[in-house]
Amino acid sequence: MSVNRNPAMRCALVSEPLSAALAREHNDANCIAMGARLTGSDMAKACLEAFLTTEFAGGRHQRRVDKLSNPEI
Q1: Lowest mean pLDDT among 30-34, 52-56, 61-65
Q2: To bridge 24 with a disulfide, which of 2, 14, 54, 60 should be the other Cys (CB 3.0-4.6 Å)?
Q3: Calpha distance 72→16 (Å, rounded)
Q4: Which residues are catalytic?
């Protein structure tokens, strides 16, 4: 089965610091995307700060991350 994505990438579309933090905490995201027309520079900086300072929670979220990383599961 061919998957149209890189299993090592977990990217999240974020629009405010809470979504950036939750992407990191719950999905162990290692990349974020923001809409240039929709996100001002101050909001983008706040999103990046939240993303970079939030740790992955693991626990019950690890199973989801394992499925994202290994589509064979």
Answers
A1: 61-65
A2: 54
A3: 33
A4: 26
Q: Which residues of 35-49 are buried (b: 16+ CB within 10 A; e: fewer)?
A: eeeebeeeebeebee
Q: What percent of the chain has pLDDT over 90?
A: 62
What separation in angstroms does the CA of 62 have from each of 22, 31, 35, 39?
Answer: 14, 17, 28, 30
Q: Which residue in this structure is represented by tokens 């740790």?
A: 55
The domain covering 11-68 belongs, at the CATH homologous superfamily level, to Sugar-phosphate isomerase, RpiB/LacA/LacB (3.40.1400.10)
Match 């979504």 to its residue by tokens. 19
